[in-house]
Design goal:
alpha/beta, 6-stranded parallel beta sheet, 40% helix
Length: 190
């Protein structure tokens, strides 16, 4: 089975996340994309009380696509959500031989070297990098290639918005079910 993971904080999941996954499905012919919300992201300060809400919102956002699946693997692992632990679990669970496909934005990709056990992760993952404004450039990509990272940068015209911008603006570029969930549960009210 040809699968790809899309791990992230998803705080909240928004339409650009969904469009990235749909683009990857079509371009690479994946059988499924597994969304993996981080339980406790190691590189971000986040309200731990939102963990279950973030998982629930991802479930709602992907429910209409049979090729999208959600995994609560990082919730089961507990503690900080290190990608190396998640990747090893997924490789074993799905009996994947070779590298695991992994969707990532340039904002996160540019920081890969600071990730926990990044040298080990480098040998297990093929990253599918989605550019965002102001992130990534040819010199950065060249440096990653020269250091043995396996990735490809996709050329796509997708909405360039972050979850942070959505939370701050209160203009939710999200599907109706997620928007209703946020309102009912009174999330992101500062």
């Amino acid at each position: 089975m040809n699968i790809c993971v899309f791990a992230g904080t998803f705080n909240p999941i928004h339409n650009a996340h969904i469009k990235m996954a749909e683009f990857a499905l079509e371009k690479f012919g994946f059988d499924k994309i597994i969304f993996i919300p981080s339980f406790i992201p190691p590189h971000k300060e986040i309200d731990a009380n939102l963990s279950q809400h973030r998982l629930n919102m991802v479930k709602l956002a992907i429910s209409n696509n049979p090729k999208f699946e959600i995994s609560d693997i990082e919730y089961k692992l507990g503690g900080k959500s290190y990608s190396i632990c998640t990747v090893k679990q997924i490789l074993e669970q799905y009996n994947i031989k070779g590298r695991l496909n992994f969707i990532i934005g340039t904002d996160a990709f540019s920081k890969l070297k600071s990730w926990y056990h990044s040298d080990e992760l480098k040998d297990l993952v093929h990253f599918i990098v989605f550019p965002r404004r102001g992130d990534g450039n040819e010199d950065m990509y060249k440096e990653f290639k020269n250091n043995g990272w396996d990735f490809e940068v996709v050329n796509s015209v997708l909405m360039d918005i972050s979850s942070t911008e959505i939370r701050k603006s209160k203009k939710y570029d999200i599907n109706k079910e997620v928007k209703d969930y946020i309102e009912v549960n009174e999330l992101y009210k500062d």
